[in-house]
Amino acid sequence: MASRNGDVRVWDPVVRLFHWGLVACCVINLFLLPPGKSVHRYVGYAAMALIALRFVWGFVGTRHARFADFVRGPSAVASYLFAFAAGRAERHVGHNPAAGWVMILLMVLLAAVGTSGWLTTLDAFWGNKALGETHELLANSLMIVAGLHASAAVVESWHLKENLIWSMVTGRKKG
């Protein structure tokens, strides 16, 4: 539904809670807490709960929260990227085709980081160096992809002349 100024509601409260909750969990665990301590694990469990919520919401949530709204095939992604490089990419109210796949990649990486971290707490894997290194590699990969995601949001905001980061705060975008 459009407001008086033409803005439309795009990101519902569940999507915004998921997004900013994961930002908080990642910043806390990657930069503020020592790995392996109890609080580090609890923050990781909170991130995993958010992933589970978002997975379910991707099937039953509002229009732009659903995977069907933003997961497109390779040709749609390639077309979008070529058009973007040429300066003629179409604006999308929800995620564009490339951003949709970045969201999936981020969710898979987060789930893998959380799962590998949880496995390190089990007796069967306690002290397993390879698993610990895998957890660290996945966390570093997550940081890189999250950095690319944030950078792309800034570039796309400039390209579209619309503050996409603020839209994830308010839930609204230009109609």
Give the mean pLDDT. Answer: 92
Beta-strand percent range: under 5%
Q: Classify the secondary structure makeup into a structural class.
A: mainly alpha
Distance between the termini: 9 Å
Give a verbal description of the structure.
With 175 residues, the chain is mainly α. The chain has one domain (8-171). It contains seven helices and two strands. The chain has a two-stranded antiparallel ribbon with strand order 1-2. Helix 1 packs antiparallel against helix 2 (38-60) and helix 2 (38-60) runs antiparallel to helix 5 (97-119). The termini are close together. The model has no long low-confidence stretch (mean pLDDT 92).
Question: How does the SSE layout of this entry go?
Answer:
Blueprint: E1 7-9, H1 13-32, H2 38-60, H3 67-70, H4 74-85, H5 97-119, H6 129-160, H7 164-170, E2 172-174
Antiparallel strand pairs: 1-2
Helix pairs in contact: 1-2, 2-5, 5-6
Q: How is this structure best summarized?
A:
This protein is mostly helical. It has helices spanning 13-32, 38-60, 67-70, 74-85, 97-119, 129-160, 164-170, and strands at residues 7-9, 172-174. It has a two-stranded antiparallel ribbon with strand order 1-2.
Keywords:
175 residues; 7 helices; 69% helix; two-stranded antiparallel sheet; mainly alpha
